[in-house]
Specification:
Elements lengths: L1 H16 L3 H29 L12
InterPro entries: PRKG1_interact (IPR031775)
GO molecular function: protein kinase binding
Pfam families: PRKG1_interact (PF15898)
């Protein structure tokens, strides 16, 4: 699983390098938004699995 994730990251980095600056920024923003959604979903899942766990304060970026 780790190797697959590393390959995916490497492929994404190569794809970003080939984009013009504006498209690169837009792609990074989309990726960032997707990761924020995934992180929130994981935190909700962890909170359900561990009732004693508390969710961290959200930070606006």
């Amino acid at each position: 699983e780790k190797v697959a994730l590393e390959k995916k990251v490497s492929d994404m980095e190569d794809e970003l390098k080939s984009l013009p600056p504006l498209a690169r920024i837009q792609a990074l923003r989309r990726g960032n938004a997707r990761l924020l959604v995934e992180n929130k979903a994981m935190l909700r899942t962890l909170a359900q699995l561990s009732p004693k766990a508390t969710l961290p304060e959200s930070e606006d970026l």
